[in-house]
Amino acid sequence: MTAERLARMRQVLDRRQPDLTVIMAGVHKEHNVSAVMRTCDAVGVPEVHAMGVHGHLAVKRTAAAGVGRRVPLRHCSDIEQGVADLKAAGYRILGAHLDPQARDFRQEDYCRSVAIMLGREKEGLDPEARAVCDGFIAIPMLGLTESLNVSVAAAVILYEAQRQREQAGLYDSPRLDEATYQRLLFEWMQP
Amino acid sequence: MTAERLARMRQVLDRRQPDLTVIMAGVHKEHNVSAVMRTCDAVGVPEVHAMGVHGHLAVKRTAAAGVGRRVPLRHCSDIEQGVADLKAAGYRILGAHLDPQARDFRQEDYCRSVAIMLGREKEGLDPEARAVCDGFIAIPMLGLTESLNVSVAAAVILYEAQRQREQAGLYDSPRLDEATYQRLLFEWMQP
Ligand SMILES: C[S@@+](CC[C@H](N)C(=O)[O-])C[C@H]1O[C@@H](n2cnc3c(N)ncnc32)[C@H](O)[C@@H]1O
Ligand SMILES: C[S@@+](CC[C@H](N)C(=O)[O-])C[C@H]1O[C@@H](n2cnc3c(N)ncnc32)[C@H](O)[C@@H]1O
Questions:
Q1: Cβ(B24)–Cβ(B118) below 8 Å
Q2: Separation of B64 CA from ligand 1 center, angstroms?
Q3: Is B185's Cβ below 8 Å from some Cβ in A?
Q4: Assuming Cys at both sites, which of A125, B43, B47, B81 could form a disulfide with B72, CB separation 3.0 to 4.6 Å?
Q5: Per DSSP, which regions of A9-139 are E strands?
Q6: Which parts of A11-134 are beta strand (E)?
Q7: Which of B62, B65, B56 is nearest to B26 (CA)?
Q8: In chain A, whose CA is at the least distance from the CA of B5?
Q9: A35: Cβ–Cβ under 8 A, 6 or more apart, which residues?
Q10: Any bridge partners for residue A120, and if so which?
Q11: DSSP code of A50?
Q12: Are A25 and A126 in contact (CB under 8 A)?
């Protein structure tokens, strides 16, 4: 561990956003899971949730190898329980879902505590997952294709959140609580 | 072909952007090619270019099956020739590339004629590809990960272009020339 590497880790931790997270509700292809997690790391999401619906368990543990060291992946086989915990912690749950009632994703305020929920590759968000959302957001589709790849949709939304948070100064000073900061630093320092 | 389907195709063609395109310079994983092309369709890019560098030929033809019907993929084994043709047609070539000299992608003006060039999954943009770019754009990375997945990077940039073009009213009235409009409509109508 060089001094330079440690300084780099601190710089990254100083920009982590404790009130921004992602829920993968049954996303299962490894390349998608890995792409979502790289994007989460890049915009400062400190940890990601993989939640299962009716026994479709979350993601394979191997899928998060590598980037999972930088962005811990929390597994929860029961989406109702997992979401209840996040709501109790103050998160608003926004389902990324092409629904006629969804709002244009750019109209949402991502500076609040927010968890973005992503659906399965083929089926999208299951009814059980939709039922626990506080609202839906959609990315406009101007072509013949019906949906975007899930990691693509996640990134378009997360970089809108990054843009809003940057404007609001939320990357300007450290925001993680001290215990989380030290825990993550300790985990990252392991060889 | 129902009347409804035909109306849908016309609506999509009315929003196609003749002065926005993407060059995949050696992108080769099928899931990435397909994700890039779905996003292109979704923001109104009428056709995409796959260009090779030193015999790394462009993408496998099968990769574009499906979405390739909606967004034709033009293959060109010689990137210098391919880019020269685009420049002659008035396109500015912007390399998506994490270079210290790159501009933040949000500072670029995507309402001009622009071709966004994407690099290979592992190696990024080869020197030959970089040499023909007019400028470089980078998406900010606030974490420990060094780069985004290529289809993710493409989407973040293309949806910024879509945002700017929407604001500028470029989706409000048809912009394809009549010959291209009719050619695409004819191709889409094939069973
Ligand atoms: C490939 S899509 C699933 C498509 C599925 N047929 C549906 O209708 O929901 C996988 C996930 O990506 C996200 N997604 C894809 N395109 C989206 C868009 N335009 N707006 C919001 N979310 C999108 C959603 O979370 C979706 O559940
Ligand atoms: C996985 S990256 C290649 C990484 C390679 N090691 C490099 O340094 O270029 C594949 C392609 O995605 C695009 N890309 C990925 N992250 C990007 C970012 N933050 N800004 C701009 N383009 C990016 C670039 O076109 C890049 O060539």
A1: yes
A2: 20
A3: no
A4: B47
A5: 20-25, 48-51, 73-76, 92-96, 103-104, 114-118, 135-138
A6: 20-25, 48-51, 73-76, 92-96, 103-104, 114-118
A7: B56
A8: A144
A9: A151, A154, A155, B148, B149, B151, B152
A10: A124
A11: E
A12: yes
Amino acid sitting at position B7: A
Query: Token digits for B104?
Result: 């933040």
Closest chain B residue to the Cα of A45, Cα to Cα: B143
Q: Does the beta carbon of B119 sit less than 6 angstroms from any atom of ligand 2? A: yes
Facing residue for A143 by CB, picked from B41, B143, B163: B41
Three-state SS for B138? strand
Instruction: Give nearest CA residue, ligand 1 atom 13.
Output: A150
Residues 82-111 of B with CB under 8 A from A: 106
CB contacts, 8 Å: B118 with chain A: none
CA–CA gap between residue B159 and residue A104 (Å, rounded): 13
Task: Indicate whether this complex's ipTM tops 0.90.
Answer: yes
Nearest-neighbour CA in chain A from B160: distance (Å): 9
**For residue B119, which ligand has an atom nearest its CA?**
2
Ligand 1 pocket residue status of A133, Cβ below 6 Å: no
CA B104 – ligand 2 centroid, Å: 13
Between B34, B44, B143, which is nearest A44 by CB?
B143
- CA distances, B85 to each of A44, B71, B90, B117 (Å): 40, 19, 9, 14
Residue A60 contacts residue A91 (beta carbons within 8 Å): no
Work out the angle at residue A109's Cα, subtended by the Cα atoms of residues A104 and A113, and round it to the nearest 5 degrees.
Answer: 125
The model carries a pTM of 0.96
User: Buried b vs exposed e over A48-83: b needs ≥16 C-beta within 10 Å?
Assistant: bbbbbbeeebbbeeebbeebbebbebeebeebeebb
Q: Which residues in chain B have Cβ-Cβ distances shorter than 8 Å to A41? A: 143-145
